[in-house]
Specification:
This protein is of the alpha/beta class. It has helices spanning 11-26, 50-61, 81-91, 102-111, 126-140, 156-165, 186-194, 209-217, 230-233, 239-249, 280-283, 290-309; strands spanning 39-44, 65-70, 94-98, 116-118, 147-154, 171-179, 198-201, 221-224, 265-268. Helix content is 42%, strand content 16%. Strands 7-6-5-8-9 form a five-stranded parallel beta sheet. Helix 1 (11-26) crosses helix 12. The relative contact order is 0.16. Bound molecules: phosphoric acid mono(formamide)ester and norvaline.
């Protein structure tokens, strides 16, 4: 079993994993030897704070060991991806990989003899999606029927929120004036729409701040993410597009004025770009569950590792 996209996981897989995330968080000592002697390789083509540390620290806290591979210091860049993954999978018990392209995550899954975890590609971020469900369960006490409004650029995180949410009865409303081309997944969106767990609101119908506020007011959670994915943020070739997006997206920034008087939890997968998709003060607002959300990446990564290693 792999975790490439949550589309491949059953409702039961997702529900049980969320329960395990909370058990592991509340009783960590019970799991101290759960992955004793097992090895995790982390292969990253892009930067990371949370996903990398959750994997490295998580496996060690479970009694296993971690091996971080920076793409540029390996021979992955020189050789055939499938050959190198096959070799790596003979050395370790599970691989957590962050590829630029989803096609490479799929290729790696095909080649690997051990479970592969997609640590965020341009299309999906499934470990984030599971951590988000854990955080919503923890703060709201249930998942079924919880309303989450994602406002921003429709991206990898948004797809995994939809994909995770449809397994557990979340109601995800997306307001996205822009979609990342790599994140277009009409099959996912149509399947999620059919289950009633996903609605996309055409941003052209939002003519003023009060309309946006009315939509948010009808939700339990408001969620945003970067308007520009990490691999493009400082890319000079993306500068013009960055400028265009900033202008287009600024009316959708989460800030105190927009959320004034609204009683909803605030989520962001981090890293946040303060002053862009979210104003700085909202990260520390009493309604923000952002730092619990990021801590939960550790506990949820442990649950994911144990599931894929067959140790839970
Ligand atoms: N949210 C998240 O995946 O963060 P990193 O990019 O720092 O891993
Ligand atoms: N959408 C963001 C997620 C970061 C965890 C990105 O891909 O950069």
């Amino acid at each position: 079993m792999h975790l490439n996209t949550l589309k491949d996981w059953s409702d039961t897989d997702v529900r049980e994993t969320v329960e395990n995330c909370l058990k592991i968080k509340n009783y960590p000592e019970k799991y101290r030897h759960a992955a004793s002697g097992l090895s995790l390789a982390l292969l990253f083509q892009k930067t990371s704070t949370r996903t990398r540390c959750a994997g490295e620290v998580g496996i060690v806290q479970l009694g296993g060991n971690a091996h971080y591979l920076d793409w540029r210091t390996t021979n992955f860049g020189l050789a055939d991806l499938s050959d190198e993954i096959k070799v790596l999978s003979a050395y370790v018990d599970v691989i957590l990989a962050r590829f630029l392209k989803h096609a490479d995550a799929c290729k790696a899954v095909e080649a690997s003899d051990v479970p592969m975890i997609n640590g965020c590609c341009d299309r999906y971020h499934p470990t984030q999606g599971l951590g988000d469900l854990m955080t919503i369960q923890e703060h709201i006490g249930r998942l079924d029927g919880v309303k989450v409004c994602f406002i921003g650029v429709h991206n990898n995180v948004c797809n995994s929120l939809i994909s995770a949410g449809m397994k557990v009865g979340l109601k995800v409303t997306v307001i996205a004036p822009e979609v990342n081309p790599a994140a277009i997944d009409k099959e996912l969106w149509s399947d999620a729409e059919k289950t009633g767990s996903y609605i996309s609101i055409d941003s052209d119908t939002i003519d003023c701040k009060s309309t946006l506020q009315e939509i948010i007011a009808d939700n339990d959670v408001v969620y945003t993410d970067t308007w520009i994915d990490m691999e493009f943020f400082t890319d000079p070739d993306f500068a013009e597009e960055k400028e265009r997006r900033m202008k287009l997206m600024m009316p959708y920034q989460l800030n105190s004025s927009l959320l004034n008087g609204l009683d909803c939890k605030i989520m962001h997968c981090l890293p946040a770009h303060r002053g862009y998709e979210i104003s700085g003060e909202l990260l520390d607002d009493p309604r923000s569950i952002i730092f619990d959300q990021s801590e939960n990446r550790l506990h949820s990564m442990k649950a994911i590792l144990l599931k894929l290693l067959g140790r839970i």
